[in-house]
Amino acid sequence: MKVLLSIKPEYVQKIIKGTKKYEYRKRIFKKNVDSVVIYSTMPEGKIIGEFTIDEIIMNSPKEIWNQTYLFSGISKDLFLEYFSGHDEGFAIKIKEFIKYKEPINPKQLDKNFVAPQSYRYIDDETSLSLQES
């Protein structure tokens, strides 16, 4: 199964370059997910690619930072600010990133598209149209 994640453009670029190998989240999927489709938030506003998940680390923010900081793609201050007030967090390790040949305007797939605040499961029909692009 796939999910759609909203990620800021500056972090998307770091994922593309390979300097960011972990995507941090306060909440994680309830279903078994093996692939993440990336929606690059405004001003880009496009679906740019996807990655397979190597593993998901669940731990305290301090332990997550200790395990992932070399490929975090963000500063420790931003990381701690993001997880402020949370006793646990999640780090999704990127296994293989695939950039789409052409970014996809999600409004072409769904005219009522709204970027997910956390994540959104992608159904088989949507998944097929992403793969065809």
What report would you give on this structure?
- With 133 residues, this protein is an alpha+beta fold.
- It has a single domain, classed as Archaeosine Trna-guanine Transglycosylase, Chain: A, domain 4.
- 27% of the residues lie in helices and 37% in strands.
- It has five helices and six strands; from the N terminus they run E-H-E-E-E-H-H-E-H-E-H.
- The chain has helices spanning 9-17, 61-68, 76-82, 106-109, 124-131, and strands at residues 2-7, 22-25, 35-40, 46-59, 89-104, 120-122.
- The longest helix has 9 residues, at 9-17.
- The model has no long low-confidence stretch (mean pLDDT 93).
Summarize the structure.
This protein has 133 residues and is of the alpha+beta class. It has helices at 9-17, 61-68, 76-82, 106-109, 124-131, and strands at 2-7, 22-25, 35-40, 46-59, 89-104, 120-122. It has a six-stranded mixed sheet with strand order 2-5-4-3-1-6.
How many strands appear in the DSSP assignment? 6
Inertia-based shape: globular
| CATH topology value | Archaeosine Trna-guanine Transglycosylase, Chain: A, domain 4
For the largest sheet, list the strands in their spatial order. Answer: 2-5-4-3-1-6
How many domains would you count in the coordinates?
A: 1
Q: What Rg, in angstroms, do the CA atoms define?
A: 14 Å
Question: Descriptors for this entry?
Answer:
5 helices, six-stranded mixed β-sheet, Archaeosine Trna-guanine Transglycosylase, Chain: A, domain 4, alpha+beta, 6 strands, globular, 133 residues
